[in-house]
C-alpha cells in the first residue's frame, strides 16, 4: 500500500480510515476492524480518565481505606440526590407553574400559557440549545467513559454496580433536568432575564455535580489508578486487544460494536427529543 508522503496525504488517509466500519467485507477487513476497535478503545479509555466522576473514583478507590470509602459513599449519595431527586421533585410538585394565572396566556394552560414576548422566547430557545449541547457532550464523554469501565474493566460485581448506578443516575438526571428546566422557564415567563439565566445554570449544575465533587488531587489519583487497571492487556479479564495490524479478539470486537451502537442510539434520541423540546418550550413560554 502506498504510504502518505505529505501532511495532506496523511489527513486524507485519516479521513478515509474514520469512514471505515466493521461492516466492510474485503481481504483486509478483519485487520482494519481490529485497528478500528483499538482506536475506539483508546478514545473510550481517554473519556474515562479525563472525565473523572465520583462514580469512577469509587470504582477504583482503595476499599480498605475507611476514609476514602466513606467519602465516596457519601458523595455518591449527594450526587444522585442532586442529579435526580431535586429535578424530579420540581416536576412532581409543579411548583414553578403553580401561581400561573391561566387567563394570562393564549392557551389557558399552566403548562403552555404562551404569555412571554419574542425576546424571552428567543433567550429560552438558545438556552435550551445549549442544554442539549451540554447533554450530548456528557453522553460522548462521561457516559462513554463509564460504559468503558463497565464493559471492559472487570474489578468485581460490587465495583461494576457502582458504574451501573452512575450510568443510571446520569441518564435519569438528564431527563429529569430537561423537564425541570421546562417548568422553570414556563414559570418565569419573562419576568426576569437574569433569573432565566440563573435557572439554566442551576440545571446545568445538576448534570455535572458528580464531576464537581471530585477535587483536583482526587481526580489525578483516580486517573492514575484507572490507567493502571485499564491497560490494553488487562481488558476483558486479560483477553487484551492485540497488537496493531492484527485481528482483534472477537470478544473485544463485540463489546466495542455494542457500546458504539448504543452511543449512537442515545445521541440520536437526545438530539431529536432535545430539538422538539426546545421548540415546544419556545412556543409555550
Descriptive notes:
By secondary structure, the protein is mostly helical. Helix content is 73%, strand content 0%. It is built from 10 helices and no strands. Helix 2 crosses helix 5. The longest helix has 35 residues. It is globular. The model has no long low-confidence stretch (mean pLDDT 83).
Spatial extent as radius of gyration: 23 Å
SSE topology string: HHHHHHHHHH
Q: Biggest sheet: strands, sense, closure?
A: none
What low-confidence regions span 5 or more consecutive residues with pLDDT below 50? none
What value does the average pLDDT take? 83
Distance N to C terminus: 59 Å
Strand percentage, roughly?
under 5%
User: Number of helix segments?
Assistant: 10
The total of beta strands comes to: 0
Helix content: over 70%
Overall, the morphology is globular
Structural class: mainly alpha
List the helices and strands and how they pair.
Blueprint: H1 7-18, H2 29-50, H3 54-60, H4 66-93, H5 118-152, H6 157-188, H7 193-212, H8 216-229, H9 235-238, H10 250-284
Observed structural traits:
single chain, 285 residues, mainly alpha, globular
Concise account of the structure shown:
With 285 residues, this protein is mostly helical. The protein has 10 helices and no strands. Helix 2 packs across helix 10 and helix 3 packs antiparallel against helix 4.
